[in-house]
Design a protein that fits this description.
0% strand, single chain
Length: 78
């Protein structure tokens, strides 16, 4: 399944089941397509219902790390 199809499927699921944990998978799919702002917005909405959900916090950290990589002028080396 393509990422766009996955995003559509997860978006529909959240629309049908607003309390679903699918927000984590949706935010991660958005991260993989570099739609960082959309991913953060999905997580914010999900945290209203599931404020202590650890996997969502991990995805949020990944989004912040990736968005910094794409906006930083300083190369990151490991």
């Amino acid at each position: 399944m393509s990422l766009d199809a996955e995003i559509e499927r997860l978006t529909r699921r959240l629309r049908d089941e607003p309390r679903s944990l699918a927000f984590v998978a949706l935010a991660d799919a958005l991260r993989r397509t570099r739609r960082f702002g959309d991913g953060i917005q999905v997580l914010r909405e999900g945290f209203r219902v599931h404020p202590e959900h650890s996997p969502a916090k991990v995805v949020l950290a990944r989004i912040h790390l990736r968005s910094e990589e794409h906006t930083s002028e300083t190369p990151v080396t490991l």
